[in-house]
Write a structure and sequence with these properties.
Length: 409
């Protein structure tokens, strides 16, 4: 189809439709990325309660726009990953529900179908790849599962952090394994799935062929473990928990100041030499610390000595001094400070609920897509459960009242 056609496909996705049976975090995060590229994402939810995440976290959406009552099924945990999407309800455990799903695949038409259901549910729900490919030959089918399509084992992010070795590497030396502060396996698998979808779209533009993409969250997580896996598997060297420090570089840790904490990371001997030339740091210009190997060997004592110096300085003074000599450093920010950072604040993505006027914001994607920029970084508010049933099923000529009575919607 040529370079020009591929370029058109990859620049904007506003001609694409994604039908997604999604819940929890990993797949909604992936389809949010597609929304930010301009794609139409329709989330398919099972009646009567839909995505369980709708009911998790504080109730924050005012009911009717005023008063103290809050709307159910639009709880805080659900909102951030679902801006810009549409929602329909469909009971795929009924023959009518499956027929309607298949009609949607064909008649919308759908370019990408995605699910994070467990594999044993694929055929029961009529969403297996072979069934949907028979309806639309060039369909890109995406399945995100805990352990790949051959396993039906249940999995949540913490379970996968444990199994992938993340927890074994997180925490203080000699302490208990800890979870990472974010659901990184969920988010990482979503990002990996997004990358594979981009590849599949490119191939489809070139060849006209669809694809089946099976994303294992476990494999996604372990794929980031290049160094620990190589050290353990090839050299029998086990990576261990090391708190805020680095296994191979020193000093690299959190240090106190007069008014906050900073993370300071010396990555080479030149930076160290420059640091020992700063006023107040001269006592660290010791022969044993000249090389990184010596600093690693004495890291506990070194960090104590450095902390006694940084504790006497203001955060701003320390940041200014370190940045002037090229030593990487940052204040340890709380989330309010992160949101106020000019590099983030000016690119925040927003959504405003037309019914209540409530505005929510999420951080910008790594690279601002052309579509999102053209929208002034504003997306539609996350959808209520089944909010788009009248529009979408109306296009198919369905009798909504009859379908509800039948238990399909």
């Amino acid at each position: 189809m040529g370079v020009q056609k591929v370029s058109e496909v990859m620049t904007s996705l506003n001609h694409l439709t994604i039908l997604s049976i999604e819940q929890a975090t990993t797949l909604p995060f992936m389809t949010l990325r597609l929304v930010q590229d301009g794609a139409r994402v329709i989330r398919v939810e099972a009646p009567p309660r839909g995505d369980p995440n709708r009911w998790v976290g504080p109730r924050v959406l005012p009911e009717g726009g005023q008063g103290t009552e809050f709307e159910e099924g639009m709880n805080a945990y659900f909102l951030p990953n679902n801006l810009g999407k549409e929602s329909i309800t469909l009971n795929l455990r009924t023959a009518t529900g499956q027929t309607l799903l298949h009609r949607l695949i064909n008649e919308l038409p759908v370019d990408i179908f995605a699910t994070n259901q467990r594999p044993r549910a694929y055929e029961k729900l009529g969403i297996d790849y072979s069934t949907l490919r028979a309806i639309k030959q060039d369909l890109i089918w995406v399945g995100i599962t805990g352990f790949g399509p051959r396993s039906d084992e249940a999995a949540y992010d913490p379970i996968l952090q444990a199994r992938a070795g993340f927890m074994d590497l997180t925490g203080e030396a000699g302490g208990s394994p800890l979870l990472f502060g974010l659901p990184m396996v969920d988010l990482g698998a979503g990002e990996h799935a997004y990358g594979q979808v981009m590849k599949a779209l490119y191939q489809r533009a070139e060849t006209g062929k669809g694809a089946r993409l099976d994303i294992s969250m476990l494999q996604s997580a372990v794929s980031w473990m290049n160094s620990p896996v190589m050290l353990a598997h090839s050299f029998d060297i086990r990576s261990t928990r090391h708190g805020n420090t680095h296994l191979f570089f020193a000093p690299a840790s959190v240090f106190p100041t007069q008014d906050a904490h900073v993370y300071l990371a010396v990555g080479n001997d030149r930076q160290w030499e420059a640091m020992t030339g700063l006023p107040g740091f001269e006592t660290l210009a010791q022969e044993g610390y000249t090389r990184n190997a010596g600093r690693i060997a004495a890291v506990e004592v070194l960090n104590q000595q450095l902390a006694s110096i940084t504790r006497s300085q203001s955060t701003d003074d320390l940041l200014t001094a370190c940045k002037a000599i090229g030593v990487p450093v940052s204040r340890v920010h709380h989330l309010g400070e992160v949101c106020d950072d000019p590099l983030i604040a000016e690119n925040m993505v927003r959504a405003i609920d037309e019914r209540t006027g409530l505005q929510i914001v999420i951080p910008p994607p790594p690279l601002m897509p052309e579509f999102l920029h053209s929208q002034d970084r504003v997306l539609t508010f996350p959808p209520r459960l089944g909010e788009h049933n009248p529009t979408i099923f109306g296009e198919l000529g369905c009798d909504l009242a009859a379908l509800k009575a039948e238990g399909v919607l």
